[in-house]
Amino acid sequence: MRAKITYLVTAAVLVFYFVLVGSRGVMLIQSGTLITVTFGVAVLVLPVIGLWFLWKNTQFVRRANQLAAELEAEGGLPVDELKRLPSGRIDRDSADEVFAKRKAETEASPDDWRCWFRLAVAYHDARDTPRARKAMQRAIALHEGRPAPA
To answer: What residues contact 146, with CB distance under 8 A and at least 6 apart?
Structure first.
């Protein structure tokens, strides 16, 4: 729940920022000189890109949460079998062990979104966020029946 609240607050602050920046861009365009119109258009591009990025990330999180809920209903969520350091952080060797199991599982069933979901969790636990995101994107695509991203 805490993560959802943090995400919503961050999204609200970003939207406020995009509106503020967009209004400044409009003000520059209304000035009417060539340079201010050029800067105004350039400034308006930033909120558009930001809103697109925020929308895509929100869709990703929503879809990943839907997969997690479905997997939980099936009883297929990965069990937390990771050893932890006294500080509470995940032991790297333990994460590598679980990752090896998840990778083998995924290689045995490359078209099963459930395996890709569990592999994404293993990548995340091993602190490899880019690969975790790619694996989750593949799980989402397989679940939706779309071609999986390369």
So the answer is: none
What average pLDDT does range 104-131 have in this prediction?
Answer: 91
By C-alpha distance, which of 3, 52, 42 is closest to 21? 42
Find residue 84's DSSP bridge partners: 90
What pLDDT, in 10s, does the model give residues 84-93? 878 878 877 7
Q: How far apart, in whole angstroms, are the C-alpha atoms of residue 91 and residue 95?
A: 6
Task: Provide φ and ψ at 145, rounded to 5°.
Answer: 80, 15
Question: Which helix (H) or strand (E) is 135 found in, with range?
Answer: helix 129-144
Q: Residue 56 CB: number of other CB atoms within 10 A? A: 10
At 77, phi and psi to the nearest 5? -65, 145
